[in-house]
Amino acid sequence: MTRREAAMILGLPATAKPNRIKEAHKRIMIVNHPDRGGSPYLASKINEAKDLLESSKS
User: Fold this and answer.
1) Full set of structural domains in the chain with CATH
2) Is 6 exposed, middle or buried (0-12, 13-18, 19+ CB in 10 A)?
3) Band (57; pLDDT cuts 50, 70, 90)
4) What CA–CA distance (Å, rounded) separates 35 from 14?
5) How many other CB atoms are found less than 10 A from the CB of residue 51?
6) Is the pLDDT of residue 17 over 70?
7) I need a surface site. Which of 28, 37, 38, 40 has the fewest CB within 10 A?
8) pLDDT cut 70: percent of the chain above it
C-alpha cells in the first residue's frame, strides 16, 4: 500500500498531521469494526493505512 492509497482509505490528504490521522481512523473504525458488523478485511486495511501514515511521519 502506498502513502497515497493509505490517505485515500482514511479520506485524508497525504500530508495529514498525526492527530487528523488518529481522528479519521477512529471515525472510520466505528462504522467498519468487525464487532459491529463490519468486514475484518476492511478493518485490517484501515489499520494498515493508519499504521503506514503514522510510521512515515516519524
Assistant:
1) 3-55 (1.10.287.110)
2) buried
3) low
4) 29
5) 14
6) yes
7) 37
8) 97
Cell 498525526, residue located: 18
d(CA 23, CA 51): 13
Residue whose C-alpha cell reads 487528523 in the numeric block: 20
Q: Using CA of residue 46, residue 48, residue 52, residue 54, what is the dihedral sign?
A: positive
CA distance 40 to 38: 7
Give tens-digit pLDDT for 4-15: 999 999 999 989
In sequence order, what DSSP letters do the residues of 1-23 get, joined into one string? --HHHHHHHHT--TT--HHHHHH
28: its cell numbers: 472510520
Say what the pLDDT of residue 4 is. 95
